[in-house]
Amino acid sequence: MMRFERRWLGLAVAAGSLAFASSAFAQSKELVFGFQCDRTGPTATVGTVLCPGYHDYIDLVNSKGGVEGFKIKVIEVDNEYKVPPAVEAHERFKKEGAVLEGLYGTPQTAALNKKLEEDKILGTSPGFGTAAAADGKRFPYTFPIAASYWSQAGGAVEFAKEKMGGLKGKKIAYLFYDNPAGKEPLPILEDLAKSEGFDLRTFAVPAPGVEMGSQVTDIVQRYKPDFVITHLFGRAPSVSIKELKGKGYPLSKVVAFVWGSAEADITAAGGMGVAEGYNTLQFAGVGKDFQVNKDIVAMYKAANKPAPKEMDSTVYYNRGILNAALHVEAVRNAIKAKGGAAPTGEEVKKGMESIKGFTLGGLLPPMELTPADHEGGGWVQVWTVHGGKLTRTKDWFQGYRSVIQKHLAADASKS
């Protein structure tokens, strides 16, 4: 336990929010948010950018007086992409009185689904976690709040179909990280292969995902697919780009799930020139042109501080903003519904289920969260490396939504 305490305290300092406008916090009212991250584990390339985005948005809200008069206190724990620290973190958040919790990692989310329900603390897992948690009736306190791996699979196949002009008789390779997250989309891909008449072949990459030469050789030289769908994270996406490019496969025939899609992945692969044509799914807007990004820059400027370097990696930074913004909006709804009083975890859950029409100037998709749909519709965009930058090539859409809903219903019937 002492090792955990030291790790948490160290990261609380390292990740601590900037002390902007401290005079604005004269009020004593405070709400606690628990937030898990990975700053030191195998997916630290994500966490070290996404998590600062979360904190910066909360700082922005606090600098303007908080949420309906309540200051937000964020307690962050680095779970190192491991399950035991994630479970310990949840217990810490509960003890500290957190009204909600930001989760991190698919194995970690699976381990906490039941605990969230028992403790009546909602947890968010945007773009990862258990796809079946989109069903709010079955998983009442778990909220994907972004396209699940099932919805990403539907989006990827729909995009491939559009690019190829049809799927019947085509060959699609699925290159994936060999863990629960990587396997999560398989039921959807297999169903679509059968219904759409394409051949699907899977290629698993063992952790930590930095060696995949043999898999890519099998794909390019033996299988020779018409399209490749990748589902990789950590350092693996950049390796896949280099391997596919090096073996002559056109990146315009590749689409990555959301964790293989950041500027850092492309830079590590050799830069935008190397990755030209590479297609990526996104569940939050990309770039720094959103008003919220400009407001954060202004907040730093007012404190005579430079804008954070993490903001340049907009894909993951903006996802941190998305998570924080939906947390704030859920709490805002709950406080208003209670006439200005501090809400309970159960009331914040109802607040999250009341979000509709909140897009944060286009950074978020047109989602609607309800007691039945905790995913918000499974919206994605496609962004493509073109001319040295990521360019939006397909606006918000839902891939094979009826198929996703069919699987949700079937999964619920088994429980």
Can you offer a commentary on this structure?
The chain is an alpha/beta fold and 415 residues long. It has two domains: 2-147 and 286-362, Response regulator (Rossmann fold, 3-Layer(aba) Sandwich), CATH 3.40.50.2300; 149-282 and 380-414, Rossmann fold (3-Layer(aba) Sandwich). The protein is 43% helix and 16% strand. The chain contains 14 helices and twelve strands. The chain has helices spanning 2-14, 44-63, 83-96, 106-119, 149-164, 180-183, 186-196, 213-223, 236-246, 263-268, 291-302, 314-337, 345-352, 401-414; strands at residues 30-37, 71-78, 100-102, 122-124, 142-143, 171-177, 199-205, 227-231, 254-256, 279-282, 380-386, 389-397. Strands 7-6-8-9-10-11-12 form a seven-stranded mixed β-sheet, sandwiched between helices. Strands 2-1-3-4-5 form a five-stranded parallel β-sheet, sandwiched between helices. β11 and β12 (389-397) form a beta hairpin. α2 crosses α12 (314-337). It is globular, with a radius of gyration of 21 Å. It starts with a helix and ends with a helix. The model is unreliable at 1-17 and 19-27 (pLDDT under 50).
Shape: globular
Rg, Å, rounded:
21 Å
| Alpha plus pi helix count | 14
CATH architecture of the largest domain: 3-Layer(aba) Sandwich
What is the CATH C-level name of the largest domain? Alpha Beta
Structure summary, number of beta strands: 12
SS content category: alpha/beta
Main beta-sheet strand count, sense and barrel state: 7 strands, mixed
